[in-house]
Amino acid sequence: MSGKGTVKRVCLAYSGGLDTSVILRWLIEEYRCEVVAYCADIGQEEELSGLPEKAKDSGAVECVITDAREEFARDYVFPAIMGSAIYEGVYLLGTALARPLISKHHVEVARETGCDAVSHGATGKGNDQVRFELAFRALAPELSVIAPWREWDLRSRSDCMSYAEKFNIPVSASAEKPYSIDRNLMHVSFEGGILEDPWRAPEQDMFILTQALELAPDVPQELVIGFERGVPISIDGERLSPAKLLAQLNRIAGSHGVGRVDLVENRFVGLKSRGVYETPGGTVLHAAHRAMESITMDREVMHERDRMAPRFAELIYNGFWFSPEIEYMRAAIDVSQQNVTGEVRLELYKGNVTICGRRSPVSLYSENLVTFEEDQGAYDQADATGFIRVQGQRLAGRGPFSSG
Length: 404
Ligand code: ARG
Prior knowledge:
The protein is built from 12 helices and 14 strands. It is α/β, with parallel strands linked by helices and about 400 residues long. Strands 3-2-1-4-5 form a 5-stranded parallel β-sheet, sandwiched between helices. Strand 1, helix 1 (about 20-30) and strand 2 form a beta-alpha-beta unit. The protein has helices at about 20-30, 50-55, 70-80, 95-110, 130-140, 155-165, 240-255, 280-295, 300-320, 325-335, 365-370, 385-390; strands at about 10-15, 35-40, 60-65, 115-120, 145, 180-185, 190, 220-230, 230-235, 240, 260-265, 270-280, 340-350, 350-360. It folds into 2 domains: about 10-175, Rossmann fold; about 185-360, Alpha-Beta Complex (Argininosuccinate synthetase, chain A, domain 2). About 40% of the residues lie in helices and about 20% in strands. Arginine binds near residues 95, 96, 128, 180 and 191. Arginine binds near residues 127, 182, 191 and 275.
């Protein structure tokens, strides 16, 4: 995809860590090109203040930092919650959702700074390379893509360390990283290290966002989450911006140990991989949102959306966020959420999210219709006789079946 000698200026997704610092230098050495460093703030909570100096010390001609936190929560995390997007039944897609957003700003910065190529630090074994590059292809097919991990002969972390030493690249002291960590406003993910043995449990001190259950408070905490057309808008009646709402929920739910999952997942490239995730706020929002839908959503619309949900999740996971099929699904999901407005009351306690109440000004729930008490003639129970008789028509005398 890339051509040495033809590339003049590359925009590199840069974090200031060992890998991307080495890549920055390597691009200059191998491609004899200029490098613009780019970093999106999506709530990874890494020190970004010293980043431009660090990038320039490593040889970058420029360093651009964009704040994408609100956009991430509003346009990526919340739509995933509205679409009930959960991969393989458990993974809430924190990394998969961030990649297209990072790529979108990446190509914008590349264009604004006159680059003819983009580069990233994702390895050749993972999903992230696919997500980045499918987004590049959709948004800026004219840009060349350089993926050093698929090209160079550095094979390990220690190879990278020696390369850094050779070129005097400033790297922080913590050379031995026990896990591959990816953090943003939605989650923290951990892979690699001892987690590569799927039988082995993680060390407790690995976790960043969530409290261990035995140390979590012994009393439950009640919260009320407000929704408007499927979008979370408030906590306990206080309206909050998307990023602030998610950050606050992370703090509260994290302190109760909510949102840890440990799974072996199927990567798009055909490998099985063990991952551990902390998604406290996202876990609360998925639960609360579904409870909100339970009184506000038409049954058939809900079931259609639910049939679409695993496919929606799979497309997000596989990196097709910017695709006609996702555009189609998101339009349908938006329509499904038109009436999803109201409040959900829940309790957080020792890793659990327990729904305790829901109410809505546009509720479809009717106490009068469903009641076991006298219903004032709104529902004629005698009608159910014919309903069941017709449903049973083709079953008459067909049993017993092998199921028993
Ligand atoms: N397995 C998860 C996913 O594919 C998390 C990936 C985390 N990425 C990383 N570079 N550590 O979405």
